[in-house]
């Protein structure tokens, strides 16, 4: 079959850092190709060059046999190369149809919008995705997965021949992902080529035909998915053998530290009770919407429970606010590092000391030297890669941002750590390092509890597993003997050990 | 290694808003002293300093509000309200001047407190809240004076001295501004409490999740801003001896301009008191230049607008290339 797109010898550097070096990639019509690599491997840079957002320093782009030079985003789109970003880039207040035709609204006489035509066309393109929704309603009324479909529909309506999906499943549930995959296969049949960027190897093996692996800006491998197994791809991504996927489990359980008794919050969760002990990692599993984050944020003091009791070292802390809990050693590390975790425009030091200005202050004055000492110490403990402690956190890769977030919380010297999706959207290497850190903390006598939507992580890292379904705790399992299927039975509501 | 360190020091210095602003001010003043011989006269310097001191005090408060991610459009009106309240309680009720000043300050604090309550509790946007308060404050000032200025006469030598006297040859309002800038700049850079303003302005949610009391920080900031506005109003009364309901008209925009020229970001998290002070000086110098060069006063607002635009564009280019 003919190649649809070929990029040859692409190189790109930013301020002396080589982001891409002599990279080759090609795709055929109707091919779904995975682009794999750790964060910072150059995937985004490559996709930005393909869509004309960045210009390469060297190399050429050949699309349908034609060499494209000085590609800009508009031309790329008109040629049929479209990207669906990880963070959706649509207008929630505007109608679905207008979102699809943003910037290309069909007109009547004298510049008036031809709504009838626009709605008809919008419905037509949504039908290709098997989506039957009212195109007049504001986009924001739709769920995340439907919004994503609208974004794909938008690309299709510009006559996309190549569709780039950047981490499309990161905010979707399992069943929503399945609907997305069905649609991708439908588009594949229409002859549309798809670049699929994902950290989830399982998905790559489920849906992709071929793969390209980048590491540190260099093309390290490509081929047919059918010819390799997941370990091969991981090896190419990290460039070393992963001796084991998870650190050793804990051997003993210490004394009880955190006790939660029957806490409830209206419309969020009901009668949640659990304990977390020293030297133990407890994994909390549940599907999106099970109320996991809400329950944990309440334990941390972001909200107060309507009823129930929370005890730390046998002391009632139910009425505590977050400040009091932090000072007593109970912390919560958010799943949303960009919105709730980090001060992206501020430097590494300022971020690390944010949760405890007290320890870097004397007589209510912040001491710059202490800020530097603490900041440097904890980002190094987390093995964060950075150029300078003065650089803004937003200039770091996702995995390193996550490490700064952890550094910030280790700096307050916590006893009980509650982590919400601590490794979401970060690469295999950083993930392993974070798992190792958590296990070390636990072995040193800390109590660790974490929320995760990834079954392998729940089974691999936890000593004990709690499962929530629709706001209720439905199961507790020993991680040594639990299986993925068993955990899923509870999470989907088919099994419940605590029902009266 | 050494090379990169050198260049980073250079970059830091040039990247520093205050340093480049100070440089612009010095060059501008030097040029002006050649073009307009009257510029360096003690009289001109003192009048310019007095002229910008009220705006400067407002700009200090405005910086705090901008850094926390808000805005306060009511400062000019609060200034007028405090100004006429102190004057009229003295004239019509015959209160002791210091008691009048105290009442005026207490009410300024209360205005700041109520603004902060609308913003933190009812979750109104700072823009709408303070736009309303801008109208309410100005309205009160007109109601209290029935619209016309009222002279308070010679009431207290100390009060007159604060507004009209000099210390070490510097007019007192200017001296007060300089002291205020030194103290507030120090606090904004070093105080544990004031550093929280930057965290809240940079990312409110993250601040909340880091155990920073976001509402408390905002309440403090809005109270400080209104108090400083009230204080500027009283200082104006001490200076001119007239309770004037129109005082501070448009001052909120000059204060915002000064703070933004000085590096404050309208999206929060950035800005320094020293920068705002230099920004106000630059605006004051430009106005002074227009007067000395015989340009009609009607041009002043236009030119200030152009200075603001250029400052923001230059800043975008410098920051954007980072």
Automatic annotation (TrEMBL), chain A:
> Gene3D superfamilies given for it?
P-loop containing nucleotide triphosphate hydrolases (3.40.50.300)
Compartments where found: Cell membrane
Under Pfam families, the record lists: ABC_tran
How this chain sits in the membrane, per its record, is: Peripheral membrane protein
InterPro entries to which the protein is assigned, alphabetical: AAA+_ATPase, ABC_carbohydrate_import_ATPase, ABC_transporter-like_ATP-bd, ABC_transporter-like_CS, P-loop_NTPase
Keyword line:
ATP-binding, Cell membrane, Membrane, Nucleotide-binding, Repeat, Translocase, Transport
At the top level, the lineage of the source is: Bacteria
Give one GO molecular function term. Answer: ATP hydrolysis activity
The principal location of this protein is membrane
Kindly provide the name given to this protein in its UniProt entry.
Answer: Monosaccharide ABC transporter ATP-binding protein, CUT2 family
- The source organism is Halanaerobium kushneri
From TrEMBL, chain B:
Task: State the UniProt keywords alphabetically.
Answer: Cell membrane, Membrane, Transmembrane, Transmembrane helix
As one GO molecular function, the record gives: transmembrane transporter activity
One Pfam match, given by its short name, reads BPD_transp_2
Q: Which CDD domains match?
A: TM_PBP1_transp_AraH_like
State the GO CC annotations: plasma membrane
Task: Please tell me whether the keyword tRNA processing is annotated for this protein.
Answer: no
Looking up PANTHER family in the UniProt record yields:
ABC TRANSPORTER PERMEASE PROTEIN YPHD-RELATED-RELATED (PTHR32196)
The name this protein carries in UniProt is Monosaccharide ABC transporter membrane protein, CUT2 family
Q: Which organism is it from?
A: Halanaerobium kushneri
């Amino acid at each position: 079959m003919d190649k649809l797109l070929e990029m040859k010898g692409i190189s790109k550097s930013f301020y002396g850092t080589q982001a891409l070096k002599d990279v080759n990639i090609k795709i055929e019509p109707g091919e779904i190709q995975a682009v794999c690599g750790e964060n910072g491997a150059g995937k985004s840079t490559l996709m930005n060059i393909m869509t004309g957002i960045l210009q390469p320093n060297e190399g050429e782009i050949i699309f349908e046999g034609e060499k494209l030079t000085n590609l800009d985003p508009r031309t790329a789109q008109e040629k049929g190369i479209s990207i669906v970003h990880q963070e959706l880039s649509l207008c929630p207040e505007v109608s679905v149809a207008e979102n699809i035709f943003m910037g290309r609204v069909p007109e009547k006489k004298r510049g008036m919008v031809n709504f009838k035509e626009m709605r008809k066309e919008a419905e037509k393109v949504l039908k290709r995705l098997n989506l039957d929704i009212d195109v007049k309603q504001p986009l924001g009324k739709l769920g995340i997965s439907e919004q994503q479909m609208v974004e794909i529909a938008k690309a299709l309506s510009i006559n996309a021949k190549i569709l780039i999906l950047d981490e499309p499943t990161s905010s979707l549930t399992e069943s929503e992902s399945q609907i997305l995959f069905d649609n991708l296969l439908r588009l594949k049949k229409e002859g549309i080529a798809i670049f699929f960027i994902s950290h989830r190897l399982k998905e790559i093996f489920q849906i992709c035909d071929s793969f390209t692996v980048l590491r540190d800006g260099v093309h390290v491998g490509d081929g047919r998915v059918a010819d390799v197994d997941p370990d091969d791809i991981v090896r190419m991504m990290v460039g070393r053998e992963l001796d084991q996927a998870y650190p050793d489990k804990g051997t003993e359980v210490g004394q009880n530290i955190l006790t939660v008794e029957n806490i409830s919050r209206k419309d969020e969760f009901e009668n949640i009770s659990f304990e977390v002990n020293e030297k133990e990692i407890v994994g909390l599993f549940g599907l999106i919407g099970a109320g996991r984050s809400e329950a944990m944020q309440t334990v941390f003091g972001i909200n107060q429970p309507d009823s129930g009791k929370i005890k730390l070292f046998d002391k009632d802390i139910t009425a505590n606010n977050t400040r009091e809990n932090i000072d007593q050693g109970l912390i919560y590390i958010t799943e949303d590092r960009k919105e709730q975790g980090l001060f992206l425009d501020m430097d590494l030091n300022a971020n690390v000391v944010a949760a405890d200005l007290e320890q870097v202050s004397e007589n209510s004055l912040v001491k710059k030297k202490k800020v530097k000492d603490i900041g440097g110490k904890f980002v190094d403990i987390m093995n964060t890669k950075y150029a300078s402690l003065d650089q803004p956190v937003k200039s770091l890769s996702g995995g390193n941002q996550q490490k700064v977030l952890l550094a910030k919380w280790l700096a307050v010297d916590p006893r009980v750590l509650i982590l919400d999706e601590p490794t979401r959207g970060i690469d295999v290497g950083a993930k392993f390092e974070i798992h190792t850190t958590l296990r070390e903390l636990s072995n040193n006598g800390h109590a660790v509890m974490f929320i995760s939507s990834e079954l392998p992580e729940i089974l691999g890292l936890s000593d004990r597993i709690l499962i929530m379904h629709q706001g209720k705790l439905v199961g507790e399992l020993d991680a040594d003997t639990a299986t993925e299927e068993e955990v899923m039975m509870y999470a989907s509501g088919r099994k419940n050990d605590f029902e009266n | 290694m050494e090379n990169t360190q050198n260049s980073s020091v250079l970059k830091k210095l040039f990247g520093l808003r205050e340093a480049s602003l100070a440089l612009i001010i010095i060059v501008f003043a030097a040029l002006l002293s050649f073009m307009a011989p009257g510029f360096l006269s003690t009289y001109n310097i003192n009048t310019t300093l007095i002229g910008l001191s009220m705006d400067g005090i407002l700009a200090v408060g405005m910086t705090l509000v901008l850094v926390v991610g808000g805005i306060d459009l009511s400062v000019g009106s609060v200034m007028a309200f405090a100004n006429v309240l102190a004057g009229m309680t003295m004239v019509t009720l015959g209160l002791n001047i210091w008691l009048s000043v105290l009442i005026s300050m207490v009410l300024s604090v209360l205005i700041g407190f109520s603004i902060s309550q609308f913003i933190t509790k009812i979750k109104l946007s700072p823009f709408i809240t303070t736009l309303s308060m801008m109208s309410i404050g100005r309205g009160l000032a007109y109601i209290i004076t029935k619209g016309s200025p009222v002279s308070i006469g010679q009431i207290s030598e100390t009060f007159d001295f604060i507004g009209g006297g000099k210390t070490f040859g510097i007019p007192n309002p200017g001296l007060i501004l300089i002291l205020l800038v030194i103290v507030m700049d120090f606090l904004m850079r070093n105080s544990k409490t004031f550093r929280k303003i930057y965290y809240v302005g940079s990312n409110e949610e993250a601040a909340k999740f880091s155990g920073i009391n976001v509402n408390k920080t905002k309440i403090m900031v809005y109270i400080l801003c209104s108090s400083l506005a009230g204080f500027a109003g009283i200082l104006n009364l001490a200076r001119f001896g007239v309770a004037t309901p129109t005082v501070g008209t448009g001052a909120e925009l000059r204060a915002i301009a000064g703070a933004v020229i000085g590096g404050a970001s309208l999206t929060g998290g950035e800005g320094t008191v020293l920068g705002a002070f230099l920004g106000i000086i630059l605006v004051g110098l430009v106005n002074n230049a227009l007067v000395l060069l015989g340009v009609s006063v009607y041009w002043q607002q236009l030119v200030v607008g152009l200075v603001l635009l250029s400052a923001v564009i230059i800043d975008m280019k410098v920051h954007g290339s980072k």
